[in-house]
Design a protein that fits this description.
Elements lengths: L7 E5 L5 E3 L4 E3 L1 H9 L4 E5 L7 H14 L7 H10 L7 H24 L10 H17 L18 H20 L1
Parallel strand pairs: 1-4
Antiparallel strand pairs: 1-2, 2-3
Helix pairs in contact: 3-5, 4-6, 5-6
InterPro entries: PHA_DNA-bd_N, PHA_reg_PhaR, PHB_accumulat
Organism: Rhodovulum viride
Protein name: Polyhydroxyalkanoate synthesis repressor PhaR
Amino acid sequence: MTEAKEPLLIKRYASRRLYNTETSDYVTLEDIAKVIRSGRDVKIVDLKSGDDLTRQYLLQIIAEHESKGESVLPINVLNDLVRSYTTSAQSVVPQFLAASFEMLRDGQSKMIENFGRINPMAMPGFEALQAQQEAFLKAMTGNWAGGSGPGEDDDEGGPNELDEIKRQLAELQQKLSKMNG
C-alpha cells in the first residue's frame, strides 16, 4: 500500500483528458481507480478554473463499476442515498457512512488475517453487520417521508430506534473484537 501523505494530483484539461502530474502522462478513470485501490488518495482539479472535481470523478468511477455488474451497493441503499439528498436531515447520512467505513477500515487489517482461512460470507457477524447497516439507513431515511423523525420515539411509545441501533452496533463491535482478539 502506498504511504504517500499527499493525494496524487490529477489535472483535467479542457479536452477532458486527465493528466497525472507525478508520472507526466494521461490516465483513464480505471487508472485512477487502481491508484485509489492501492491506498493512495487522489485530487482531481480543472486546469483552467482550479475547481476541485474529485467528488464528481469518484462518483463516476463508482457508477461505472456498478453498471458493469460489480455491484457493491444494494438497490435499497442506493434508493436511500437518493432520498437523503431531498431531505433536511441529509447531514446525518454522510456522517453515518463515514463512521461505518472508518469502523470497517479499523477492523479490516485484523479481519484480513482471518480471511485467508475462512470464507468472509460465512463469518459469524457478517450478516448481522449487513442487516445493521440496512436497518440504520431504513431508520434514518424511512421516516423522512412523513413519520416521526430520527431520534424520536415511535407512535406506540416503544424504544427509540436510534438507541436500539446504537445498542446493536455496540454488540456487533464486541463480537468483531472477540473474533479478532
